[in-house]
Amino acid sequence: MTSDASSPLFHDPGECGLHFFGAVSASISHELKNALAIINEHAGLLEDLSALAERGRPVDPQRLQKVSANIARQVQRADGIIRNMNRFAHSIDAPVNTVDVPDILRFVAGLTERKATMAGVVLNVVPETAPFSAQTRPFFLLNLLWICLKALIEAIPSGSAIQMGVTAEGHHATVWLHGGQAQALPDIHKNAIQQAAMLIPMLGAEVRVNDETGNIEIRIPKTICGA
After folding, report:
1. How far is CA 212 from CA 55, 182, 188, 216, in A?
2. Dihedral sign, CA of 190, 191, 195, 200?
3. 113, exposed or middle or buried, with CB in 10 Å at 0-12, 13-18, 19+?
4. 224 vs 165, higher pLDDT
5. Please, how many CA atoms are within 13 Å of residue 159, restricted to the half-sphere of its CB?
6. For residue range 151-172, what is the model confidence (pLDDT) as tens digits?
7. What predicted TM-score, i.e. pTM, was given to this entire model?
8. Of 140, 145, 101, which is closest to residue 123 (Cα–Cα)?
9. How far apart, in whole angstroms, are the C-alpha atoms of residue 71 and residue 80?
């Protein structure tokens, strides 16, 4: 098999998982660094305003309030990033666990948000998604969904939007991704299948293209065999 830097192929699930863990950790660290840089910038502005006040120059209270609000907003952002990092790290605690599939999808969307933003793509998980519990391998399910979503983000043009949701069908849930680029679906599907080749059988999952809806679909069983 051949690969390029953007579409690496793996020899076992562990190698695939390590790549996933590294990529997400790097993205989280960049997000956190950006938030801290903005906080530092606003702290510097407060220092400048304080220096002006010390020299007897009037300082607009509304300007101080705006800077303070911006700092608070970035602190909240950083707190959310760290909570995501903590949850992601703990996703590997239990090899097999029961998860809510729509919640996992929303979490993957959050982990992928920075990559989508950099590509000019908007992610939208539909709000009407119903709960669906599945006994699965949480870390590798996150890995599979991340690979499929990443493949779609990389294939569609800037300015596009991706709609995502979950439908329940008896003992299976289907996560669907729609990027509005039907002509590119075979290549996106092939890319995702190649990268996730080691994950799909161990999750008992199926990744397919729905020609009628133009969706990439990831079918997940309610219980994996041998769990």
Report:
1. 70, 10, 16, 11
2. negative
3. middle
4. 165
5. 1
6. 999 999 999 999 999 999 889 9
7. 0.87
8. 145
9. 14
According to DSSP, residue 223 is labeled B
Percent of the chain with pLDDT over 90: 70
Residues 6+ apart with CB under 8 A from 89: none
Does an H or E element contain 188, and which?
Answer: helix 185-195
Question: What are the beta bridge partners of residue 4?
Answer: 7
Write b or e for each residue in 132-146: b if 16 or more Cβ atoms lie within 10 A of its Cβ, otherwise e.
bebebbbbbbbbbbb
Pairing assessment for the beta strands 161-169 and 122-125 based on DSSP bridges? parallel
Token pair recorded at residue 16 = 């695939």
- Residue 19 to residue 45: CA distance in whole angstroms: 39
Q: How many Cα neighbours within 13 Å face the side chain of 168?
A: 13
Instruction: Report pLDDT digits (tens) over 95-152.
Output: 999 999 999 999 999 999 999 999 999 999 998 777 899 999 999 999 999 999 999 9
Say how far apart CA 12 and CA 186 lie, in whole Å. Answer: 24
